[in-house]
Amino acid sequence: MNRSTAAALAASLAVAGTVTGIGVASASGAATTHTMQFVGSQIKDVMANDKDVATDKNTQNGKTVGYDVTSCAINITTHVATCTVAVARAQGILVGKAKVNVDTGKGSGTVTGGTGGFHGATGTMTINPGSSQNSNKITITYQV
After folding, report:
1. pTM of the prediction?
2. Any residues with CB less than 8 A from the CB of 7 and at least 6 apart, and which?
3. Is residue 142 within 8 Å of residue 22, measured between CB atoms?
4. What DSSP letter does each residue of 12-33 carry, written as one string?
5. Per-residue pLDDT averaged across 49-72, rounded?
6. Fewer beta carbons within 10 angstroms: which end of the chain, N or C?
7. DSSP character at residue 2
8. Residue 27 falls inside a structural domain
9. Which domain CATH number covers 8?
10. How far apart are the C-alpha atoms of 80 and 83, rounded to whole Å?
11. Does residue 123 lie in a domain region?
């Protein structure tokens, strides 16, 4: 797997998609849990100041649901990309950090915040290889 693929994986990992499951908040004001699943397909990838910067189109069931951008440092010894990600959706931008193994295309990360409807979001994300070299399957579970 090349650096472009690693960045695409991490980028898509970012956090996007359509909410596929929604928890119910309690009367006490507890956070509501949401789960997103989508496919990220790389649009563009460039090296800038020793970082692999990429953007992806995010789809669910063939429909575009948003876009993401990543900035990754790739460790050439361990083959792990350490990325900062931002996913743009109609309700705001979800922000996170992820690590992706460049050789396997698998990774995980955390949701660290966001804007708009994602303000104060926390959670986790997983990344798996997609059906093509520059795509990946992302699942994000977050609370707001």
Report:
1. 0.79
2. 42, 45, 52, 53, 54, 70, 72, 81, 83
3. no
4. HHT--SEEEEE----TT-PPPE
5. 96
6. N
7. -
8. no
9. 2.40.480.10
10. 10
11. yes
